[in-house]
Amino acid sequence: MKLSRRALTIKPSPIRKLIDTVESLENVLKLHVGEPDFDTPRSIKEAAKKAFDEGYTHYTFTAGIPKLREAIAEKLKQDNRIDADPENEITVTAGGYGALFSAIHAVIDEGDEVLIPEPAWPAYKGFVKLAGGNPIPLPLSPPEYRLNIKLVEERIGERTKMIIINTPNNPTGTVYGEEELRKLAYLALKKGIYILSDEVYEKIIFDDAKHFSIASIPEARNNTISVYSFSKTYAMTGWRIGYVVAPEEVTSAIRTIHSYMISCVSPAIQLAALKALTEPQDYVDYMVNEYRERRDIAFNLLNEIPDVECVKPKGTFYLFPDFSRIERNSLSLAEKLLNEVKVSTIPGAAFGEAGEGHLRISIAASRETIMEAINRIKKFISNSSSSKSPINKPGEL
């Protein structure tokens, strides 16, 4: 008896592997976490309790309950400048994961190529491979990793069917500007390929940055699939609810795929998400302001470390400092920091070759944790340098 070829081609996520290692250790300062450290707002939890008490415990619409889709349509119109039909173009999914998985399976056939600008969240490659497609890395240039439209055009071939973009970006914190996204949209139109726009960090924006949705370009609506989630915005990662916006034909296929995955999202969870969308957004503003202050603390401390370069991110709750002058092998460096000073980070190599030499630092932790952890990193590097002991010995997580 043999396993499927697709299952055998998928390797476990290097991020999950590190998380499993971290969980087996005690007293680790966790800067690897990819979820808010805030609790879900009480009003949202109360809405879920009320829904459960009122009997919302059975199957519901595969596409999502109508009043939630209507609220999502209103949010898209107000916040993203996207006009979407809640009946035929919006699907409530099991988190951003469910949206991405369903969208990719709805569009990608065996042998189709999908361009993925890197550094990039590693799950994209897994989703594409499971659909039978070929992920094609598109390495972007540090330190800011802006979209390179010329490079995108050069890599588009006969089998290219989609490009995946993520803005604000995990892991770099880059927020793509309207001008570069418009250029990408018109290129995709000219070449006849889909854009899958992952916008789950859309609300976590700092300074003068502005989030722009490609699907707000009227001409781009028919070849753009947009993914959103309640996870990051409302600290609802464990609730597993997101949504995807796409043209009617694509939406129909997405709903079919998603229905075979989970049938439907819990109606009580959907009513909690409805509460999140329709109540005042003060809690979101509070979280973003806190992230901003933590970002500034982490940025300043990281740039105090000799030979470390760090760009101040415009979005997300990650920083992506460059440690390559100290240690090129990010897996080795992350392993040493974890084992020797009990600080967990994500190695840049997990996000593709373009991320090598970097570490992803999460600020989804208390200020005290951030300061203590980065000071430990600074001390470790200083001690390694002064003792002239090599810290670039290859290692494995």
Q: What is the domain total for the residues?
A: 2
CATH architecture assignment of the largest domain: 3-Layer(aba) Sandwich
What best-fitting shape do the alpha-carbon axes yield? globular
Main β-sheet, spatial strand arrangement: 2-8-7-6-5-3-4
> Average pLDDT value?
95
Q: What fold name stands as the CATH topology of the largest domain?
A: Aspartate Aminotransferase, domain 2
CATH level 4 superfamily of the largest domain? Type I PLP-dependent aspartate aminotransferase-like (Major domain)
Helix content: 40-55%
How far is the N terminus from the C terminus?
A: 31 Å
What profile does the largest beta sheet have? 7 strands, mixed
Class based on secondary structure composition and strand pairing: alpha/beta
Compressed to H and E, one letter per element, the order equals HHEHHEHEHEHEHEEEHHHEHEEEH
What fraction strand?
Answer: 5-15%
What is the top-level CATH class of the largest domain? Alpha Beta
Return Rg in Å: 21 Å
The stretches of 5 or more residues where confidence is low (pLDDT under 50) are 393-397
Number of strands: 12
SS element count, helices: 13
Write up what this structure looks like:
- The structure is a single chain.
- With 397 residues, the chain is α/β, with parallel strands linked by helices.
- The chain has two domains: 138 residues, Alpha-Beta Complex (Aspartate Aminotransferase, domain 1); 221 residues, Aspartate Aminotransferase, domain 2 (3-Layer(aba) Sandwich), CATH 3.40.640.10.
- The protein has a seven-stranded mixed sheet, with helices on both faces. Strands 9-12-11 form a three-stranded antiparallel sheet. Strands 1-10 form a two-stranded parallel ribbon.
- It is globular and about 65 Å long.
